[in-house]
Amino acid sequence: MSMCGAWSPVKPVTLEVIKICLEMRKPIEDRVVNGNDSKVYIPSVYSYQILNGTNYVVKVFLGGRDDGVCVHAKIHQALPCNDGKLTLSRFQFPKTFDEPLEPF
Questions:
Q1: Could you give the 3-state DSSP secondary structure of residue 1?
Q2: Is the peptide bond before 100 cis (omega within 30 degrees of 0)?
Q3: How wide is the angle at C-alpha 15 spanned by C-alphas 82 and 26, nearest 5°?
Q4: Is-contact 49 55, C-beta < 8 A?
Q5: What is the residue-level pLDDT of the chain in tens, covering all 104 positions?
Q6: 74 is in which domain, residue-wise?
Q7: Gap between the Cα atoms of 33 and 40, Å rounded
Q8: Are 55 and 74 in contact, with CB atoms under 8 Å apart?
């Protein structure tokens, strides 16, 4: 676990992060593919930061397009006392599959 405010090392997604990404699929696709569903939507790696809830940055592969285009999404999960609501804070698109995920 990382210290409060520091970003964790980038690592493969966990089941918990996959569930978060699936819940945020529609908002991400609405912003990066103009509301069209991606044929493939695969979260691969992530980093997190504990700060007034949890911030996640996640690399998501969007298949069925060009050659390995990805989105880097920043997702905020509010504290449980605030219902743990998920919001898409920011995103970087397009990203290549080989571009490293860096917190932003």
A1: coil
A2: no
A3: 65
A4: yes
A5: 556 689 999 999 999 999 999 999 999 988 886 555 667 899 999 999 999 999 999 999 987 655 678 999 999 999 999 899 999 999 999 999 899 999 99
A6: 6-96
A7: 12
A8: yes
Question: How would you write 27-38 as a 3-class SS string?
Answer: HHHHHHCCCCCC
Strand order through the sheet with 11-12: 11-12, 42-50, 54-61, 69-77, 86-96
Q: How many CB atoms lie within 10 A of CB 80?
A: 8
Tally the domains of the chain.
Answer: 1
Residue 18 lies in a domain: yes
Which of 80, 18, 29 is CA-nearest to residue 54?
Answer: 80
**In this structure, is residue 23 part of a structural domain?**
yes
User: pTM for this one?
Assistant: 0.89
The reply to whether 1 falls in a domain is no
C-alpha angle 56-98-46 in degrees, rounded to nearest 5: 15
- Residue that the structure tokens 């992060």 belong to: 17
Q: Which two tokens stand for residue 99?
A: 């571009």
Q: Looking at residue 63, which CATH number applies to its domain?
A: 3.10.450
Residue 39's φ and ψ, nearest 5 degrees, are -70, -35
